[in-house]
Design a protein that fits this description.
The protein is an alpha/beta fold. Helices cover 42% and strands 18% of the residues.
Length: 157
Amino acid sequence: MTDQDFMRLALEQAQHAWDLGEVPVGAVVVKDGEVIACGYNQPIDRHDPCAHAEIVALRAAAARLGNYRLPGCVLYVTLEPCLMCSGAMMHARLARVVFGASDPKTGVCGSLMNMFENRQLNHHTSVSGGVLAQQCSEMLKAFFAARRAQAKAQQPE
């Protein structure tokens, strides 16, 4: 499978988040070409500010492998990771992170900064962005457009 194939799986996970009313971000963790874990945004549903798609997927992968370190694993996520998620990825020792849409407000894989390029840190994860960026971005834009339309429809006239 290719990066695009794995990103399509992450987009399927993002749809699960949307179905729950969460911001549609999805993630999958791959080791040796096999998906070992999936996750999607659930902070509202779980009442957990850390329940971002990436964290959910990392926790599931660590449980499956029986190790908090995930060497040789690749994480695919539909939106550029934030600082919290990127920190967790570094601690997990991921080999690679692949994201779809850039996040100019909170992304730290090149938008606001590139945390993974900081040579002072002891682990260096490879990052690739822009994989199926248009599809990932369109899903987010459609979600927020629908949310705005719903809010407008609920306003008294």
